[in-house]
Amino acid sequence: MNVALLLLVLEDALWSALAATGFAMLFNVPVRTLPGCAILGAVGHAARTLLMQMGMSIEAGTLAGATLVGFLGLVFARRWKTPSSVYTLSGAIPMVPGALAYRTMIGLLKLAEAAPDAAALMLADVSVSAIKTGLILGAIAVGIAAPSLLFFRQRPLA
Fold first, then answer.
1. Cα pseudo-dihedral 27, 31, 33, 34, rounded to 10
2. How far apart are CA 89 and CA 18, in angstroms?
3. What gap in Å lies between CA 102 and CA 111, rounded to an integer?
4. Do the beta carbons of residue 79 and residue 60 sit within 8 Å?
5. For labeling, which of 17, 67, 125, 152 is most exposed (least CB within 10 Å)?
6. Contact 46/16 with Cβ under 8 angstroms?
7. What is the mean pLDDT of residues 12-33?
8. Sign of the torsion formed by the C-alpha atoms of 129, 130, 135 and 137
9. What is the rounded CA–CA span in Å between residue 150 and residue 155?
10. How far apart are CA 58 and CA 81, in angstroms?
11. pLDDT by residue (tens digit) across 59-114?
């Protein structure tokens, strides 16, 4: 791993930890759980960034990062005897595609005002952004939920 990539991942982890901590405070989580929220935010987003730098798509990288957040959330929940959602929700917030969703919405507004001849190209761009946004949000949901679904499934009564 070269130095530039390491610095990129460490900077990404720092800002993601800060974002996760801010959202954890906004969600009013117990103060003793804030370090765990920061760690999950940093690790999840840094993993996604590292995977993307290695050539993986943002959707697949988000799924891997969110799954890592989901598994570590279970570990932290047992360690601090709190619900795993305390950690996983704030840890996944930095992976939410805010800029992409914003571009999608702005594109939709511009599409509504566009001339018919330019609308086809704009529709294609907006559709790609919307699909990417949906896939990233779905990857976050599946990644966070997968560990709990694997380990805490309901057993049949009979």
1. 70
2. 14
3. 14
4. no
5. 152
6. yes
7. 96
8. positive
9. 12
10. 33
11. 999 999 999 999 999 999 999 999 999 999 999 999 999 999 999 999 999 998 88
Identify the burial level of 13 via C-beta atoms within 10 angstroms of its C-beta, where 0-12 means exposed, 13-18 middle and 19 or more buried: buried
Q: 81 is written with which tokens?
A: 């005897």
Tokens standing for 60?
């697949």
Encoded tokens for 121: 């190209």
**Domain boundaries along the sequence of the chain:** 3-95+140-151
Tell me the three-class secondary structure of the chain, residue by residue.
Answer: CCHHHHHHHHHHHHHHHHHHHHHHHHCCCCHHHHHHHHHHHHHHHHHHHHHHHCCCCHHHHHHHHHHHHHHHHHHHHHHHCCCCHHHHHHHHHHHCCHHHHHHHHHHHHHHHHCCHHHHHHHHHHHHHHHHHHHHHHHHHHHHHHHHHHHHCCCCCCC
Q: For residue 20, what are its two tokens?
A: 């996760």
Q: What is the pLDDT of residue 155?
A: 67
Question: Which residue, 83, 102, 87, 97, is CA-closest to 139?
Answer: 97
